[in-house]
Write a structure and sequence with these properties.
The chain is mostly beta strands and about 170 residues long. The chain has two domains: about 45 residues, no CATH class; about 100 residues, Immunoglobulins (Immunoglobulin-like, Sandwich), CATH 2.60.40.10. Helices cover about 10% and strands about 35% of the residues. The protein has one helix and twelve strands, in the order H-E-E-E-E-E-E-E-E-E-E-E-E. The chain starts with a helix and ends in a 12-residue tail after the last strand.
Amino acid sequence: MKLLVAAAIALGMSAIAMAQVYKTTDENGRTVYTDRPSEDAESVEMREINSAPPIKVRPNTNTDESPKQVLNYQVHITSPANETYLTPGERNLTVAFAVNQPLKDGVRAQLLSNGNPVGSSTTDSSITLGEVERGEHQVTVIIYNGDDEILAESAPIKIYAHRATAPKPKPHN
């Protein structure tokens, strides 16, 4: 069943990615991009969407003979929901997450956007991603220790940021 759902989502995303875009000029001389063809619109070839695979959680390969407390952290993103759309007025995004146990000394949480660390790591249960750029972002939260070992990683969620373009000023005659 999960495989069927994943295939349906992938097919839907590929249809979105392959949607045709047209470029035209409106009556005020401004360039307009749209998904609706018209007589004077020209087809625009879109570049492939950038994406990055999530960071894999490395198993603990500690062969130290001294007994250590095993920290079995689990983390999941509680807010925002997967496939959230940010409108042009929403500049920042706060990602809230839950961890199955309190973070021990030296253990921290880090927000990743498209596989890259965002902001500072924290022991709080939320991280704010400021000035989210236009496009699709894959967001995850990792839990790591003082040795930079990843102890847990959330399932990724997708965020779509819409950004308006500013109209060009009219030339003064």
